[in-house]
Amino acid sequence: MAGNGKAGPAVGQAAPRESPQMTAAESVLARAGGVSRVVPGEYVVAKIDAMMMHDIFAADVLGMLERAGIEHLHEPGRATVVFDHMVPAPSVAAAEHQAKARRLVRHYGIEAFFEIGRGICHQVMVEEGRVQPGDLVVGTDSHTTTYGALGAAGCGVGSSEMAYALATGELWFKVPETVLVMLEGRLAPAVTAKDLVLFLMREVGSSEAQYRSVEHGGSGADSLSLAERMTISNMGVEMGAKFSLFAAAGAATAREGARYAAIHEVDLAALSPQVAVPHHVENVVDVGDVAGLHLDQVFLGSCTNGRLEDLREAAAILRGRRIAPGLRMIVTPASSTVYRLAAEEGVLADLAAAGAIIEGPGCGPCFGGHLGLLAPGERCLGTHNRNFRGRMGSPEGEIYLGSPATAAASALAGAIADPRELAVSDTRVEVTR
What we know:
- The model is unreliable at 1-8, 10-19, 250-254 and 423-433 (pLDDT under 50).
- The chain has three domains: 11-18 and 175-270, Aconitase, domain 3; 29-174, Aconitase, domain 3, CATH 3.30.499; 274-420, Aconitase, domain 3, CATH 3.30.499.10.
- It has a five-stranded mixed sheet. It has a five-stranded parallel sheet with strand order 5-4-3-6-7, with helices on both faces. Strands 17-16-15-18-19 form a five-stranded parallel sheet.
- It has 15 helices and 19 strands.
- A hairpin with a 7-residue loop joins strand 13 (274-276) and strand 14 (284-286).
- It is α/β, with parallel strands linked by helices.
- The radius of gyration is 21 Å and the shape is globular.
- Helix 2 crosses helix 3 and helix 11 (308-318) crosses helix 13.
């Protein structure tokens, strides 16, 4: 990126431009707000197209409505509840919390309720068609930005905001400025969308993207699958972005003439595998800078990289091989659909034969709930989205973030490894919905 003094595949940054056209996020907010046009800095009261809650917050949100004497949701058909974080319930307290949520889901007539085992909320929302291109979506999870992969504007909200949205069908928003990322070319073998978004964390970061929308366009965007777009939009929130989205159609020429706070260009073919090192997602280096660093655990999964495409990529590397002695590898498919398809294809068998532990769909290891925590002094490389101190258990543990290819190569080596050193074919395909 021009002006940052760092070497890399970025090829320049242009000055902001003025135009009467709207960015992707502005267009969504204008439509949802019932106005012809919005500009950054304005406040708009907008109708919410989809509202999502997971098990950690559903009981609290719906309990607020019950205590306030609100008997009916504004439009219960727009609400979705997914049990995905504390699943299966790891404690009596979690079981009681989920039981309360189930009661309130029935009370308020929420039909789009997905029990434990269906999958991680963001994957389920896409698979079940609960989000459509151009929608304005809010969720009680910060990674609601994931829906930007479909051209929807999604963001996380707090419990009180969600309760208000459920009761009234609307929320207010401050229209964000937009940072445009133009993607050119195609990713090289063993280099993935996770490497791209980690590179963006390194080069753009939260200082520039804070409370802005990040919009991805260019001919390179057209080469990315839905799964890859979901990975990129998912981690937009780590850059501080309000929204992180792709154009619903025609990414190569999306929003020509719109006004952007900054424009960045990235040559996808020049990217190399990236790794985020402790204890912040912006601490990103080339994989070669940390290659050989001993690992105790490798985690493949989460709403960032637990899709069928991700499991296929790891299995292509692990097939016929065994993970390093003394290392544990945990795999959590993002949904029951991903689990089933991976089983039918033999992907799970390949992972298990290599020595991986296959867990049910859920968020447990990613957010440090259960099913794979770290002891003091232990080190994990995972495909999830955050590596904050204590995120996966002990605050004395270390979390590194990388792609499914890097995770698989590292599991074989017992240390962080460059996946390009293995003979791996390009396994990127569109995820079946």
